[in-house]
Design goal:
5 helices; alpha/beta
Length: 212
């Protein structure tokens, strides 16, 4: 699988725009899934263009939660590609009249080896990919807490990689069995995570590509 961070607070590619928000493209088993859309449509599309990602090549959009820094680019993206399946949690009420809209409540198999945790704590869902190495878990801001997200994911298998925003997460021992840790966006304690798990840590930022 291939994971390309499109939108983040930082950028590892000087040709990309860094801005508060998060979006990443996951390519897995023939599916191209856009996870969140950042805060600004103009930044999302500019970074996609620079990375050579055609918006019309996206099959599905998965929104973790309703906060603007994860949904702000959605309408602009729809201007270029409205023929996608859109997965959203029930707490996100800002979408109307989309032909392929699916609200996700509990743990749900979206496709073979692709799952949503379902909306946890009535605010956020995370995306799970079942690989030969274990589960790759993509999170938006981890508002329901990393521990609860991992607990939900373990219903599917053993966590292997955790990528996305961890917010104020400090229970670092929960990461000890992870093989890949890429904290992005809203993560407050990136320095501590890097120091504790230097061999597992991958720096995030727009332009980061992770292949698993």
């Amino acid at each position: 699988m291939k994971i390309t961070i499109i939108y983040d607070n930082t950028a590892i590619n000087e040709n990309l725009i860094a801005d508060w928000g998060f979006s990443t493209l996951i390519e897995f088993k023939g599916k191209r899934i856009l996870f969140d859309t950042g805060a600004k449509g103009s930044v999302l599309l500019k970074n996609m263009h620079t990375l050579g990602i055609d918006p019309q090549s996206i099959d599905e959009v998965f929104i973790s939660h309703y906060h603007y820094d994860h949904t702000g680019g959605l309408s602009t993206f729809f201007d270029l590609n409205n023929d996608v399946t859109l997965y959203i949690p029930p707490s996100f009420k800002g979408v109307h009249n989309h032909a392929k809209l699916e609200y996700i409540t509990g743990l749900t198999c979206l496709h073979q080896d692709i799952y949503s945790t379902g909306e946890l704590k009535k605010i956020e869902q995370s995306l799970i990919f079942k690989t030969e190495n274990g589960l790759v878990i993509i999170v938006g801001c981890a508002h329901p807490k990393i521990g609860n997200i991992l607990k939900a994911a373990r219903e599917v298998g053993k966590p292997y990689a955790l990528i996305g925003g961890f917010h104020g997460f400090r229970k670092f021992n929960l990461l000890k069995n992870m093989e890949i840790i890429c904290p992005t966006h809203c993560t407050r304690h990136i320095k501590e995570i890097k120091e504790l798990y230097p061999k597992k840590y991958i720096e995030g930022g727009a332009g980061r590509i992770i292949e698993i």
